[in-house]
Every structure is written in structure tokens, then in C-alpha cells.
Specification:
Number of domains: 3
Oligomer: single chain
CATH superfamily of the largest domain: MFS general substrate transporter like domains
Shape: globular
CATH architecture of the largest domain: Up-down Bundle
Helix content: over 70%
Number of strands: 2
Strand content: under 5%
Structural class: mainly alpha
CATH topology of the largest domain: Growth Hormone, Chain: A
Order of helices and strands: EEHHHHHHHHHHHHHHHHHH
Length: 486
């Protein structure tokens, strides 16, 4: 694969990415993984700080939901745009811009005087974050051209995600306890700055030979549809289902959905090619991504409220208590990858969905006095289930697709993960409240949320079977024939 390398501001020169020596390729991987580290860390580290943010900024549960969802919504909306922008304008340039914007957003979040500013600054963070992971993956793909080395690099990428998730609760709990919630955003800045400098010196510039054209109308419709949907779910509890603003939000979401269905098929290079959804494996993988990351987002949000508000644990103790879940995600992911490579996607999807279901069912019965042994058992089940189910998503999405379309299919599955996380936080936050200072042994009021998450796990089991049948493979072949390069 050929990349474009800028040399001292002169006219770009063509340079095969395979010409980078091994040491430089490893350095490129380290720089790209650093972006994944801070984005992954940001997910779990913020959840641990939510009760402190609630007290300091005098907000409500819906305010906490927006603190999380403002980030994931913008990230989901801009992932495909950022990927195509990197292909067109230069991946290194886009990546470095994302690092600067993410660092700026983190600094602004740490200084937010109120909830409204914090939500706005989280959106700035997300704009930067959208330029990091998809573009970094493109850089890795162009740097590691040998299949075996590329597989190893992607394995390291997955391990970094698991590590960042595992460290997030503990690091966040320590920072919140010792300094305060604002400090959780400081940790992003030195890492982002170091990656920015390193990328400028080590990462070669590259562009796609035929970059996809921008689709501003499709992009706007995606933003409206996602934002209106999440707004309606979060605010329906306080406003009521028939309030004018909820009705308007639902109508806006439906309008954007139908407009996308009409407009996108008319474009030669749509933001979201609806022909992908004629493939049962792709449609199933998209749904599995929404369900699995919806469960993860809901788990982190609900469990934080339970531990700190229901049980009265400190931020540090809550972070340490959540560690078994994060560790199992990190351990199960590579195991799942090996199973997918040897036996296909069905086994890890079914086992993963079953583990998530079992863990959430166990949590429906927790009280403020439930033993840590019981909690840890549920966390291990959920974490191992999520780790198993996450790895096959992209593999299932691109199954049977032409090679030229694999990147777009993977991008849509990545967007679906962020959409799922937003919806998970919105739904379980609307169902559960944990009153502070509840008496010991009192039932926790998050049972409805845990049952919803258990249902998501059960749906993953069903989809894991359906999307791996001979019929599903035939639909993938039929859909591929409709695609360029099929």
C-alpha cells in the first residue's frame, strides 16, 4: 500500500509504507495507541467521577447523563466524517489536529464552572476524539502492510483498550479522592501533547488514492436523528411523554430517519450506504454493537450510582470494586479473537451474550448490603461476556463484503458502538435513581435498568446464532454483489 509522505514542506513524495524500519513502525503504533488510551480512559474515568460532579455542580441524574452522552453522541456522529477527512486531507494532519482539540477540550472540562459548560466542553473533547481512533487505525493499516504484523498490531490496539478501561476506574477514583473530579481531565493533556509531538516527527503523512466525498446533508441528518432520540429518552422522565418538547424531539428523529432513507440511496458515495443492511451479518453486527456497548455504557453508569450513592462507597473504592469487570474485558478480548480466527463468530457471540445476561440478572437482586463476593462474581460474568462479544463485531460486519468496502463497514460498526453507549446511558439513567444514605440492606432501585441490560445480552445470543447461519452468509454474498468491487 502506498502512502504520501511530506518532506520539509515540499511537494509530497510517494513512499511505500513498507519502507519504514521495524523500530519506526513500532513507534508509530505506540503513538496511535496513545490516542486510544486517552479516549478509552476517558470513558471509565468520567463515570467514577459522576457523583462528585453531581454534588459540586448541583445537577441531577439527567445532567449526569448529558455529561456522558454529549461526548458519545458527538463522537458517534462524526466518526465517519473524520475517517473520510483523514483520507482526503491527510491522516497525520487530521490525527494531530484531533490530539490538540482533545487536549483543549480536556482543559476546558477541568475548568467548567457549571453543568452547561461541562457538557459543551465534553462536546469539544468528542470533536477531537472523533479524529483519533478511526484515523489512527488507518495509519496503522498503512504502516503495517504484512498481514501477520498487521494482525499483531491490531492485537496490541485491542490490549491497550482493555488496559485503559481497567485503569480508568482506579486512576479516576484516586484522582477524585485526592484532588477532585476536575483532575480526571488533566491526565489527557500531557499524553495528547506527547503524541502530537511524536506524530509530527515519526508518523508519515498518507492519504487515500480515492477519498470519499463529503456528505454534509447525510451528516446533518445523522446528527439530528441521534441527538433528538437521546434527548427524548433522557428528558422524558422530567418532562413527560406528551410534553411538546418530547413530541418535537421524536418527530425530528423520525423525520431525519426517513430523510436518510430517501436521500442516501441517491448519492454515489453516501455517508451510510444502506445497501450494507441487506446483509444479515452486517445488520446483525450493527445491532450487536449497539446492544453490547449500550450494555457497557448502562453498566458503568448504573454501577457507579449504585456503589457511590446506594452503598456510600468513595470514588476510589468504587473504582477498585469495578476492577474485576475491566480486567475480564482485557483478558477475554484476545481469547475471543483467537476463537473467531479458528471457529468463527458464533461461539464468542453466544457465550458473550450469555455472560452479560447472567451478570446483569445477578445484579437485579442487589441491595445496599450485598456482599462484595456476589458483586465481583456478577462483574466477572459481565466483563468476560462483554470481552467475548466485542471482538467479533467488526469481523461479522465485514464478513462477505468486498475488500474495497471493508473499511466503510468497519467504520459504521464503530459508529454503532458509540450510538449504543449513548442509548445505554440514556435508557438506564431514565429508569434508576439511587437515593443517598439508604439504610443497610435496603433494595437498590436500579433493578429495572439491570433487567433492560440483561435483555440486551439475551438479544446478542439470538443475533449471534442468526447472523452466522448459511442463510445469513447468502444475504452477505447477495449484498456484496450490489457494491462497487463486489
Amino acid at each position: 500500500m502506498v502512502g504520501v509522505v511530506a518532506v520539509r514542506g515540499s511537494r509530497p513524495l510517494e513512499l511505500g509504507s513498507g519502507e519504514l524500519d521495524a523500530r519506526r513502525r513500532i513507534a508509530v503504533l505506540a503513538i496511535c495507541c496513545s490516542s486510544l488510551f486517552i479516549v478509552g480512559l476517558d470513558n471509565t474515568i468520567v463515570n467514577v467521577a459522576l457523583p462528585s460532579i453531581e454534588r459540586d455542580l448541583h445537577t441531577t441524574v439527567s445532567g449526569l447523563q448529558w455529561t456522558v452522552d454529549a461526548y458519545t453522541l458527538v463522537l458517534a456522529s462524526l466518526l465517519l466524517l473524520a475517517g473520510s477527512m483523514g483520507d482526503r486531507l491527510g491522516r497525520r494532519r487530521t490525527f494531530r489536529t484531533g490530539l490538540l482539540v482533545f487536549a483543549l477540550g480536556s482543559l476546558l472540562c477541568s475548568a467548567a464552572p457549571n453543568l452547561e459548560c461541562l457538557v459543551a466542553f465534553r462536546m469539544v473533547q468528542a470533536v477531537g476524539g472523533s479524529m483519533l481512533n478511526p484515523v489512527a487505525m488507518s495509519i496503522i493499516t498503512n504502516t503495517f502492510t504484512v498481514a501477520r504484523e498487521r494482525a499483531q498490531a491490531i492485537g496490541v490496539w485491542g490490549a491497550v483498550l482493555g488496559t485503559s478501561m481497567a485503569l480508568g476506574p482506579v486512576v479516576g477514583g484516586e484522582l477524585v479522592t485526592a484532588i477532585g473530579w476536575r483532575s480526571i481531565f488533566w491526565i489527557n493533556v500531557p499524553i495528547a501533547v506527547a503524541a502530537y509531538v511524536g506524530a509530527g516527527r515519526i508518523v508519515p503523512e498518507s492519504r487515500a488514492e480515492h477519498a470519499r466525498r463529503a456528505d454534509p446533508v447525510g451528516q446533518a441528518l445523522v446528527v439530528v436523528m441521534l441527538a433528538a432520540t437521546v434527548y427524548a429518552i433522557i428528558e422524558v422522565r422530567s418532562a413527560g411523554p406528551l410534553s411538546p418538547r418530547i413530541v418535537v424531539a421524536v418527530l425530528l428523529a423520525l423525520f431525519a430517519l426517513f430523510a436518510l432513507a430517501i436521500y442516501e440511496p441517491r448519492r454515489d458515495e453516501p455517508l451510510i450506504d444502506l445497501r450494507f443492511f441487506r446483509s444479515a451479518p452486517f445488520s446483525g453486527a450493527t445491532a450487536i454493537a449497539v446492544l453490547s456497548f449500550g450494555s457497557l455504557g448502562g453498566f458503568l453508569f448504573l454501577n457507579t450510582l449504585y456503589l457511590q450513592q446506594g452503598r456510600g462507597a468513595s470514588a476510589l473504592a468504587a473504582g477498585i470494586d469495578t476492577l474485576p469487570m475491566a480486567v475480564m474485558v482485557a483478558l477475554a478480548a484476545p481469547v475471543s479473537g483467537r476463537i473467531v480466527g479458528t471457529r468463527g463468530s458464533r461461539t464468542p457471540l453466544v457465550a458473550g451474550g450469555a455472560g452479560m445476561t447472567a451478570g446483569c440478572v445477578a445484579l437485579t437482586r442487589v441491595t445496599t448490603g450485598t456482599s462484595l463476593a456476589v458483586l465481583f462474581g456478577a462483574y466477572v460474568l459481565f466483563g468476560s461476556g462483554f470481552g467475548l462479544a466485542n471482538a467479533p463485531i467488526t469481523h461479522t460486519a465485514v464478513s462477505g463484503m468486498p475488500r474495497e468496502q471493508a473499511g466503510v463497514a468497519a467504520g459504521i460498526s464503530s459508529m454503532s458502538r458509540q450510538v449504543g453507549q449513548s442509548l445505554g446511558v440514556a435508557v438506564v439513567g431514565a429508569l434508576a435513581v439511587f437515593p443517598p444514605h439508604a439504610r443497610a440492606g435496603a433494595p437498590a432501585s436500579g433493578a429495572a435498568g439491570w433487567w433492560v441490560l440483561a435483555g440486551c445480552g439475551a438479544a446478542i445470543v439470538v443475533l449471534g446464532v442468526v447472523t452466522t447461519t448459511a442463510w445469513a452468509r447468502r444475504t452477505a454474498v447477495a449484498a456484496a454483489r450490489l457494491m462497487p468491487g463486489g
